[in-house]
Write the structure tokens for this entry.
Amino acid sequence: MRLNQMLILCLLFFTISCISAESRPYYKLTLSNGNNYEGTILKEKPDGSILFRTKDGVKYLLHKDEISSLTEMAIPFAQTNKIQNLGIPYKGNFGVGIGIPYGIFGFGADYFVRPRIAATIGLGTAFIGGAYDVGIRYFLRDMDHTWRPRLSAYYGINSFELVQTADNELDKKNSDTFAGLTLGIGQQWSWGKSKHTGIELDMNYLVTTGVFDRIDELKAHGYDVSEASRIQMSIGIRHNF
């Protein structure tokens, strides 16, 4: 089996595993003030408190005395009356940047299908034509964290080759863009209490692309072209909504 095929199979296995990990059992939560919520338990702490996320994505840190009842749990809870809301429930983000997630040079957007899983798209230019990328991202931390590392997979324009004529002008006939599969590892920093705006940085690996064959072809015809790398960096600014 070729290396590229193995990487694609690993990507599919990773995506399925991420979705399965996000499939937590749901509970019906009743608070002492009579409010009812449905959602999942993210964390149980030693002091008896729980971090609860509603089906709308809002998080609550609740002490056991604040909970009247919680289905599917054997431990009864007493009653009290205070809730602390820790949730930052964003549906997505958009931004501008340079690199594969932004269509080489352009715009990018994410839509969260799960709190840690986002569908992503980038639209931009590769200087000799339009460029696009679509894919999926899995964040290793929740939205309320300042630093959120992530893993990504994209398909679309991930490389281009600009060829110059003897007069140092762009040779449009021999210049081209190339599409393929890209895997990335990166991180997003969002500042402030609201986490509305942040900066992101990714290191991307070109699993499949036609640029290397194109470079070999151009060299065989006597063109002086620069080498390409399978490792590409990207950077951008995002605004959460």
User: Anything to note?
Assistant: The longest strand covers residues 176-191. The radius of gyration is 23 Å. The chain has two helices and 14 strands.
